[in-house]
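JOB MANIFEST
job_type = single_chain_structure
chain_count = 1
residues = 264
[input]
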Amino acid sequence: MPTATEPCEWPLVGADDCDAIQECGYPAEVKAAAVAYLWNWTGKRYGLCEVAVRPRRQDCHGSTYAGRAGHPDTGGWNWTPVLIGGEWFNIGCGDCGDVCGCSSLASIRLPGPVEEVTQVLIDGVALDAAAYRVDNRKRLVRHDGGRWPLCNDLTEASTEAGTWEVTYKRGVPVPKGGQIAAATLACEIAKGLRRSSDCRLPERIQTVTREGVTVGVLDPFDGLEGGRTGIWLIDSWVASITSSPTRSTVHSPDRRGTQRTTSP
């Protein structure tokens, strides 16, 4: 998937209560500017983008678990060596995805994180949303007994026979604090455009008077690249995101992951 170059869905909570946004003449542009600032200040990690992908299923058949490495009865299986309890085993690949149980499910991996699947088209017909779910924010699992198509004719539009397409929202939803901070910043930007006296954003020019001489000095905006605007509500939220300590993790090759449903 291509890297996002601009923010996607970022709600603004409270923006409608700011008269300056509506009266500045550029309400959409002001909101977009505020969102772009916060998106960059927080490492471009928030916002939902609706994307449509045309999957090509990587299918493999056989048992989800088989005997130890070197077992003579390996004909016809797709084997993968796995370390379990300090011993190597050959594991046959099934259809259930990363983690398998006693049953087999058809699943595909989507470029994630997946927040919500909005539509699945097969042969141009929308599949009932009750037929599938999302596990671990990345794997689309079909649990109605059907299978995902093996082929996808990419020469045809997704509305034609022999094709299938998944449309979903990709990314991390914006926390409520970020939605409020964006509305606050948009309001102050609008006030700045209207040159309102109650605008809380810093001015670029500062004046210094010494012995009757007044000199205008450009403010270098130190700290602005880190999201320090001088407005507590905005700066505190940005700092809470960017200043969080990174926790170390340890992964064991013997430990198998869990399957957790994250959507419908």
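[summary]
Residues 59-77, 93-99 have pLDDT under 50 and may be disordered.
The chain has two domains: 15-46+174-242, 51-171.
exit_status = 0
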